[in-house]
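Structure ticket #2291
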Amino acid sequence: MRSIIVRISKPYRAFDGLTGLKTLNFHAKNIPSINSLTGSGLPIENLDLTGVETIASGVLSYLYQLKQVTVGWQTPLVLTFNPFYGIDTHNVTLNVPEGTEDAYRAAYVWKDFYIVVNLPTGIPGLNAETGAYLYDGRLYINSPVAETIQVYSVNGVLLHNFRKPAGSADYIISKASGAVLIVKGGSGWVKKVIR
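Resolution: structure written out below.
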């Protein structure tokens, strides 16, 4: 599975050329109108909307291969429109926090998904709050535990080794070459990040 985390600063053509993209994790508060995502034919199967507070109208439309959406809201995000226009959401799994399933089954748009409870995996440090992305020469990491972070090239060469405290941290990435890096957390998670 190909998965990336990206920071969107120029949303108009943010996803052009990423035809192998299967998983998309939004860690921003707002999902703006992203013209190259809507109707783009991207083969996105998994969306993580944890942390999102607003979604632009229609931004997630026509993602025909969408299979799973994960949310972390204790109360369903109130929508006055359907950002998933053109998708048969009855066939898409919506992972919701434990104890919130009844609220999602009653909420506009969310009630049309196949709702399941997002239970902990049993793997320490692997949850919706684990993430990594590159921006402006820095690697940003968020995970709930203190751990060793290793950064590898796609060829398996160890480029950086950091000891990260619990929570968020960022590091200058100087030796990195190439467009893709592999970031591995000591608690067992692995993320691919794109420059």
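Closing remark: The longest strand covers residues 147-153.
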